[in-house]
Amino acid sequence: MEDKEMILLNRYFKNMELTIQEELGMVEEVELIIERFINNLIDLMYNKKKNEQQIVRLNEKINNLKQKIVKSLSVKVQQADTNQPQKLDLTDFFYNDFIDSELPPRLINILLKNNLNSPKDLLYATKEELLSLKNFGKKSYLELEQYFLQRTGLTMERLKNSL
Q1: What's the rounded Cα separation, in Å, for the pair 20 and 24?
Q2: SS3 state of residue 116
Q3: Contact criterion met (CB below 8 Å) for 151 and 93
Q4: What is the dihedral angle through the alpha carbons of 142, 146, 149, 152, rounded to the nearest 10 degrees?
Q5: By the 8 A CB rule, do 76 and 140 touch?
Q6: Is the CB of residue 161 less than 8 Å from the CB of residue 152?
Q7: Measuring CA to CA, how many Å separate 41 from each of 35, 48, 52?
Q8: Which pLDDT value is given to residue 121?
Q9: Which has the closest alpha carbon to 154: 129, 131, 115, 122?
Q10: Which pLDDT band holds residue 15 (cuts at 50, 70, 90)?
Q11: C-beta separation of 93 from 119 below 8 A
């Protein structure tokens, strides 16, 4: 509230010897001041709730990123300790969505548009079927092979044959 509004409120509540005309004029001004105050309070409460929701969403994203970083670091530490490529648990690998992977966005979009959401979905597709997808060529196939190789130690075809 501004100083002049506070002065008006004080004058209104402390001055009991006002004429009816003066009091009516002040009542209207006081009502406007209170209405503005309530609207400002509502805006503040709405913005606080909105900000709290944004903070919750950001914290969730931060926690997801922390988990990914910890998982990635633990794999890299294990690789450094053993000097061998460390294979992820295949269950984790198969059920992780491509949207969360390090694949190029172009390749992720192609896969998602064709309802191929995770590595497990690729187990049922042949190389020819994948190459027949719109905008999916040899480079895309090689990127997928590299993705499988880095995470499992096997190419897609060898992994399919081993299951």
Answers
A1: 6
A2: coil
A3: yes
A4: -110
A5: no
A6: no
A7: 10, 10, 16
A8: 86
A9: 122
A10: low
A11: yes
Helix (H, G, I), strand (E, B) or coil at 9: helix
The pair of three-digit structure tokens given for residue 51, joined into one six-digit string: 């900000």
Q: Which residues of 76-106 are buried (b: 16+ CB within 10 A; e: fewer)?
A: eeeeeeeeeeeeeebeebbebebeebebeee
DSSP letter (8 states) at residue 100? G
Q: What is the pLDDT of residues 72-115, one digit of tens each?
A: 767 666 666 565 544 446 777 777 788 778 889 999 999 999 98
Exposed/middle/buried for 147, CB within 10 Å: 0-12, 13-18, 19+? buried
Cα 123 vs. chain centroid, distance in angstroms? 29
Radius of gyration, CA atoms only, the chain = 32
Q: How many whole angstroms separate alpha carbon 49 and alpha carbon 100?
A: 29
Cα pseudo-dihedral 125, 128, 131, 132, rounded to 10? -90
Amino acid at 47: N
Two structure tokens written together for 117: 């959401």
Q: What tokens were used for 128?
A: 């020819």
